[in-house]
TrEMBL record, chain B:
Keywords for the protein's UniProt record, in alphabetical order: Lyase, Pyridoxal phosphate, Schiff base
GO biological process, one term: pyridoxine biosynthetic process
Binding-site residues, D-ribose 5-phosphate: 25, 154, 215, 236-237
GO molecular function: pyridoxal 5'-phosphate synthase (glutamine hydrolysing) activity
Entry protein name: Pyridoxal 5'-phosphate synthase subunit PdxS
Assembly notes: Homohexamer and homododecamer. In the presence of PdxT, forms a dodecamer of heterodimers.
Pathways involved: Cofactor biosynthesis; pyridoxal 5'-phosphate biosynthesis
Amino acid sequence: MVEMRIGVLALQGAVEEHIEQIESLGAKAVPIKKPDELNSIDGLILPGGESTTMRRLIDRYHFLIPLQEFAAMQKPIFGTCAGMVLLAKEIADTESSHLGLMDIVVKRNAFGRQRESFEVQIEVAGFEERIPAVFIRAPYIDKASEKVEVLAQYEGHIVAARQGNLLVSSFHPELTSDTRFLQLFIDMVSQCNVVETVS
Amino acid sequence: MEKLLGTDTVKRGMAQMQKGGVIMDVVNAEQAKIAEASGAVAVMALERVPSDIRAAGGVARMADPRIVEEVIEAVSIPVMAKARIGHIVEARVLEAMGVDYIDESEVLTPADEEFHLLKSDFTVPFVCGCRDLGEAARRIGEGASMLRTKGEPGTGNIVEAVRHIRKVNAQIRKVTLMSDDELMTEAKHLGAPYDVLKEIKKLGKLPVVNFAAGGVATPADAALMMELGADGVFVGSGVFKSESPEKFASAIVQATTYYNDYDLIAKLSKELGTAMKGIDISTLKQEERMQDRGW
């Protein structure tokens, strides 16, 4: 079997943390700094960081359409925190969205400022035990269409969800040593590869 | 498990999300908006940028809370602010105002010439300056969640920041290669807490993010610091004391992300206008050196 290659958008943010976790699960991690590098990967992680900074660089380095095409090819994308904001079709209290791929309305900094940031154990659909979740100036999903599968909620708000090839979390699995949530994404990528080989 | 606020993971994690980014000094809402639009990952709200603090003289204190508030309201990116070294109340006031990160900073006039803040007592995370591994480890021991080189603030001269990052990284390499029985004496030499040094040896790097600060004036300066291993860059006077702040801010952000793309940095550096006027460090009097503040 060909080695699975997972890209991490490396414009800004917690890139290294994702790379280390991906490699700990036996896949090849590839930092993505130029749009043509998207052609070499099976799945992509949009890391935590500042969504406004990433958007400036996405525009300036012509990433927007290549990223949308990557998603249109049904390749899996996992957005953590700022990555969730980038994937949303709508961002609460603003008129513009970024990649506009997932049928969710995301509220930025929804749990408050840094002093309100927290960690907690949460339940995730399909997981036998709770996972540690680190929320840093985190967003949550304010509204989701019925096409979206809710994976986790905290204090009544959606904090993890999936829609087809797109996976998002408000929290940062890459800041913990627990790799179960990343494994969920890796499984999505392997399934996508299987479908590709069969068809 | 209940909800935990202000843990090391949460405080250090916030700095991890800033990696590869540029944090810019701003003195009002208008500058904060320019910084955000250029792609800054955070802004540092101040009453004066360091080069103006140098020029003004006198006692430099925490910014007027109205400025901090104005900046918080103007942008959606994180807002940092500076407190004087050892000034417990300035730090508590900034925390109460909802500032996202506090810089216990040598740029301001120290309030305590013997002790730094016990940063582990706070919910808000702190960044502190360092010139060597001993200083870095002492600040981590007190609870700093992020470090930065001190450089020599407000000079537009990168030489001190380069000295500091090289020193810290060389000392980390040395500690990493040491045998366990040599570590206690090294802790004594460095003036570093033993436990922190043990953790650094185990990780092969600092347990917190380390940015560059103090003298970044051009896109090439920012890229140089990234090349030398900084996790990101603070720009103080370099943006708003340049001829064209919008252009400088945007070019420095891009040069930080693409720090090893030299064709791009050449392109970014063209038509920027004049950078801030710099200061030769050797012309500074002893009492004008901000980097010597801190213990």
